[in-house]
Design a protein that fits this description.
Distance between the termini: 27 Å
Structural class: alpha+beta
Number of strands: 4
Number of domains: 2
CATH class of the largest domain: Alpha Beta
Bound molecules: FE2/S2 (inorganic) cluster
Number of helices: 7
Low-confidence stretches: none
Helix content: 40-55%
Strand order of the largest sheet: 2-1-3-4
Largest sheet: 4 strands, mixed
Mean pLDDT: 92
Length: 163
C-alpha cells in the first residue's frame, strides 16, 4: 500500500507545517480534506491526527461534526453550501435551497450520482452583505436569483471550474 503510506507522509507533513498544535486543528483538517480526493476526512486520518496531537479521537470528531464544511463520508467534488443563518434566511435562503434541490435533484446531505455535487446547509460564511448567498467549493455567490443559480450550476456542470 505504497499509496496509503505516501498519503500518511503527506498527513504528517501538514501536521508539522502547523506545528503539531491543537490550536491549528481546523486548518489541518481543512488541508487534509482538500488532499483526500473524497472531499471528506477518512477515519484513519482522524485517528492519526488525534494521536499526533494527543487528543481523544472523540474530541476530534466532535470538532469535525460541529462544522458543516467537514465530512466523514466521501462527498462530491464540489460542496454546495446554502447559508441558513439570519441575514440569508430573511433574504430568501429557503427559496434558494428549494431551487438548488430541484436543479441538482438532491436533499441536504446527498451527493449527485456523477459525484460532482454534495448539497449541505451551512452557517454564515461572511457574505451577509450579498445575501442570500451560497458557496461552491471556495467560491461565494450572492444576490442570487433563479436565473443566476441556473447559470452558476450549469457552469460547474460544463466544467468551467477546476477547483
Ligand atoms: S448570513 Fe449568510 S453569509 Fe452571512
Amino acid at each position: 500500500m505504497a499509496r496509503g503510506r505516501a498519503k500518511m507522509e503527506k498527513v504528517k507533513e501538514i501536521l508539522n507545517r502547523y506545528g503539531n498544535s491543537k490550536d491549528n486543528l481546523i486548518q489541518v483538517m481543512l488541508e487534509l480534506q482538500n488532499i483526500s480526493g473524497t472531499n471528506s476526512l477518512p477515519h484513519d486520518w482522524v485517528v492519526f491526527v488525534a494521536e499526533a496531537l494527543d487528543m481523544p479521537v472523540s474530541r476530534v470528531y466532535s470538532v469535525i461534526t460541529f462544522y458543516s464544511m467537514f465530512g466523514n463520508e466521501p462527498r462530491g467534488k464540489y460542496l454546495v453550501e446554502v447559508c441558513k443563518s439570519g441575514p440569508c434566511h430573511v433574504s430568501g435562503a429557503k427559496t434558494v435551497l428549494q431551487l438548488i434541490e430541484e436543479k441538482l435533484g438532491l436533499k441536504p446531505g446527498e451527493t449527485t450520482e456523477d459525484g460532482v455535487f454534495t448539497l449541505i446547509q451551512s452557517s454564515c460564511f461572511g457574505a451577509c452583505d450579498i445575501a442570500p448567498a451560497i458557496k461552491i467549493g471556495e467560491k461565494v455567490y450572492g444576490n442570487l436569483t433563479a436565473e443566476k443559480l441556473t447559470e452558476i450550476v450549469d457552469s460547474y456542470r460544463e466544467g468551467q471550474h477546476n477547483g
